[in-house]
Amino acid sequence: MAGPRHISVSEASRPVLPRHAKLKYDETRKVWVILAPERVLAPDEIAVEVLQLCDGERNVGDVSDQLAAKYAAPREAILADVIVMLQDLADKGFLTEAREKTS
Amino acid sequence: MSDVLGNPTLPPDASDSLAVLEKSRSTAETFGIPLAVLLEITHRCPLQCPYCSNPVELDRSGKELTTEEWKKVLSELAEIGVLQVHFSGGEPTARKDLVELVKHASDVGLYTNLITSAVLLTRERLSELADAGLCHVQISFQGVEEGLADRVGGYRGGHRKKLEVAKWTRELDLPLTVNAVMHRQNLHQLPEIIQMSVDLDADRLEVANVQYYGWALKNRAALMPTVAQLDECTRIVEEARERLKGRLTIDYVVPDYYALRPKKCMGGWGRQFFNISPAGKVLPCHAAESITGLDFESVRSNHSIAWIWQNSDAFNRYRGTGWMKEPCKTCEFREIDFGGCRCQAFALTGDAANTDPACALSPLHETIFKQAEREAEGDTNRFIYRNFAGGTLESENGA
Predict the structure, then answer these.
(1) Measured between alpha carbons, how far is B143 from B207 in angstroms, rounded to an integer?
(2) Hey, which of B3, B43, B88, B315 would disulfide with B115, CB 3.0 to 4.6 Å?
(3) Are B200 and B170 in contact, with CB atoms under 8 Å apart?
(4) Residue B139, SS3?
(5) Quick one: how far is CA B384 from the chain centroid?
(6) Is pLDDT above 70 for B123?
(7) Which distant-in-sequence residues (6+ apart) come within 8 Å of B319 by Cβ?
(8) Are B230 and B254 in contact (CB under 8 A)?
(9) What rounded mean pLDDT belongs to chain A?
(10) Within its chain, how far is the Cα of B53 from the centroid?
(11) Average per-residue pLDDT for chain B
């Protein structure tokens, strides 16, 4: 089973797309999409970049560090934006949290 | 399968958009390939619901595409830019090769939805489907308790089995949609159906009022709700949507007889939707074969699916607005609803190019609305069950 259904995203969260939400580059339309049950979402460029970093290993803090370094932008502002974006996705049911590793 | 497949464009944060990416809202010359395609892989089904969306003339199993033919279709769909497929029917699990087809769809990169009555599934088979890459399961429910639900489906033990399969679906970590087709004889159970969906841990509930063509038109007198019932239904849905925000998404389809404006059926003919019938016909809507005089091309023909979508006569016949007669032709809403539903216009007026009588501007609207109201108040409750023999009337004491 995946993590709890309705998650609250924080700096320590290690979010990941659930198996039923698939991030994919649509070659025909030249856009990134998230495929979900009976839905196709169109994430913007920043959301795509964030989601590509959300592998269930990195936490939201790590993701923000990377983006802050890459864009030479203030970390706190980035962190706030990332949390809002991910929480929105979580509220729609398209985000889950990786469990603690058991091994 | 609901008709609300979303907006004609794919805006950022589209909340309900199995729609095509169109460059403009004009009567575009070319139409992009739909994001999602409905595959009716068989018309065989153990249930006999009196409002079945399949055509009255069902395809027999001997006409069905073979496993290899379906695989070729799936590869072709992925190649031309389709992103999602819905395995539907009839009952798709009646096909022995379903796991193989789902696996192939996943291998070529398609997102797979299963639209099922669930009664033929075992836990093992559902697990195999999940392993094959199935992404989402939608289970139809005919009511909230087995007395009524099994009577509507014409299948004893069906309701209990559906509850069991819904539980397995969530245990296998697959997202679940409950599809509830509503009509006069089960609308009183709506509050409990909503609660059942929450209890089953469903993500989505489709409250889909019956649309009256094909089998449902035959059964209209037994199914048509009253205006009062429908108003209550809308109130219940709105209240539940608010209360269950973030837990359960509720999609809502009203019966268009009681609307003043027709629905933008299929998002407009040939604009953002097609389906493939068991025998391989490429159709602008799952009821399209009810319109006589249209020649639908098959995937077994020499043409590609993309060619059929772009160029075939059946798709172009009612595309855009050029085909319209009055009152549609000069109507300010003509590019908003595209004159409603062509199948309904054909079934009720004999000409698919007429205004859908669901529209208040149709000269037939008043007559049809009054007739529906009379039927809704009547006491004809016996169903004509859907089957390959053209339908069987329910016996006096049920079933």
Answers:
(1) 11
(2) B88
(3) yes
(4) strand
(5) 20
(6) yes
(7) B27, B31, B268, B269, B270, B271
(8) yes
(9) 86
(10) 6
(11) 90
Contacts of B204 in chain A (CB under 8 A): 37-38
pLDDT tens digit sequence for B317-334: 999 999 999 999 999 999
Instruction: Quickly tell me which residue has 């696996």 as its tokens.
Output: B103
Rounded distance, CA A71 to CA A14, Å? 22
Q: 10 Å Cβ neighbour count for B293?
A: 9
Residue B301's SS3 state is coil
Instruction: Give the end-to-end CA distance of chain B in Å, rounded to a whole number.
Output: 25
**Arithmetic mean of pLDDT, B337-349:** 93
Q: What's the CA gap between A34 and A89, in Å, rounded? A: 11
Contacts of B11 in chain A (CB under 8 A): 42
Considering the entire predicted model, what is its pTM? 0.90
Query: How do beta strands B204-209 and B275-276 pair?
Result: unpaired
Query: End-to-end alpha-carbon separation of chain A, Å?
Result: 17
Distance of alpha carbon B103 from alpha carbon B101, whole angstroms: 5
The verdict on a CB contact (< 8 Å) between B246 and A6 is yes
Stretch (H or E) spanning A23: strand A22-26
Ranges of beta strands (E only) in chain B are 36-40, 84-88, 111-116, 136-141, 176-182, 204-209, 249-253, 275-276, 282-283, 384-385, 392-393
Contacting A with CB below 8 Å, chain B residues are 10-19, 21, 32-33, 35-36, 80-81, 83-84, 109, 111, 113, 135-136, 138, 173-175, 177, 201, 203-204, 246-247, 249
A25 at the B interface (CB within 8 A)?
no
Q: What dihedral do alpha carbons B210, B55, B363, B269 form, nearest 10°?
A: 90
CB contact under 8 A, B18 and A19: no
Both tokens of B2, joined, read: 């609901």
Does the distance separating the beta carbons of A40 and B204 come in below 8 Å?
no
Q: How far apart are CA B151 and CA B270, in angstroms?
A: 36
- Taking an 8 Å cut-off on Cβ atoms, the answer to whether A22 and B13 are in contact is no
What whole-number distance in Å separates Cα of residue B134 and Cα of residue B139?
Answer: 14
Residue B293 gets the label, from left (phi > 0), alpha (psi -120 to 50) or beta, of left
DSSP class of B119: T
- Please give the single-letter amino acid code of residue B221: A
Q: Across-strand partners of B139?
A: B116, B178
Q: Confirm if B176 and B170 have CB atoms less than 8 A apart.
A: yes
